[in-house]
């Protein structure tokens, strides 16, 4: 088994850092990325400024490998956008010889199983290799390899939540997909002409929604006919928001502090608590049926931006014995530490294999995906997860899962 590689799924910051940690320990690995290059998801939100400074975004083992290749580290306290992280960190890291030689791009993992065992087989799992199937996205051909361990660092960026408060698409959402964007569109850059002078409905109450509001407000300065409707399920926006004096992450606190002034502006209306029930294409845009505070109304808009969070994709690991919390879809023993009702990004304590435990031996979900539907993930805590996993793989010790705590009930 020890001669087989560790398979890492996804070459985002976490998958690449895992590769770096295995490389410095001389443990063989194969890193699979479905995009054209490493960092494919971050590249898609390259226009967004992250909240955390460089020192929190760079992994220590990755830094060691990069410095050996003559890398110039960015200033610790600088705030970068996704594009800078991609160009100045992830891409160079993927080119470090020890990683480049084991990185397979345009290779999508489509199945992970225990070789010749089904999910109900309890015996033999620990001593049976994983069989990993990946699709070459250029030729559409499937290939397989055996692995001693599998680290799923595939993120959540590709599975955004739909508009419906029940977790499904609302009628008309899929039919009108060309008028609807998920995540954070590049409103100040390549998508500017699309949104300027338009009426835009922003759905969601988190920082991604807020980032779109601020960008649309800037467009209003160019063209005063730009209007924004902000719809959120929650009734209160500011209740739990820390500000520039109290937030553990300065840039996020500053954004929160600027929000009351933003939403007091005439061209921004807030509908809360609200629930969208249907979308219909009409000659002058989209008619959106929305229930606000118990009353149903119709609003007419040109475009919708949906920032209602993400969920983990589990299809390709469905034959493994993984174990997720029924509410947040994070590993069961981790969920108390990341529960967004108890923690914000920045207050999640360091954790490792004991919290990331699954009944499936030597299988771990890490990085953004390990937080399931919780939006509290930071790269820094992800790197800490990996230190623990790399040590575990190196030493091969049994894992005693951490005992769940009383705070569990708060997540429901
Ligand atoms: C807009 C935004 C702002 C954020 N700001 C911050 C911040 O300020 N600070 C911070 O610390 N964190 C921030 N985060 C959270 C988090 O750190 C990032 O999302 C980070 O990119 C997560 O890293 P990851 O490697 O877990 O996942 P990703 O970066 O999503 O990487 C996953 C990779 O896996 C690939 N992949 C997916 N499925 C497969 C498959 N089946 N086979 C092969 N490859 C696959 C994807 O193409 C992708 O390249 C932010 C997130 C977002 C979306």
TrEMBL record:
Classification via InterPro entries: Auxin_biosynth/cation_transpt, FAD/NAD-bd_sf
UniProt keyword annotations, A-Z: Oxidoreductase
Source taxonomy: Bacteria, Pseudomonadati, Pseudomonadota, Gammaproteobacteria, Alteromonadales
Pfam families: Pyr_redox_3
Organism: Thalassotalea profundi
UniProt keyword Cytoplasm present: no
Protein name, UniProt field: Flavoprotein
Signal peptide feature range: none
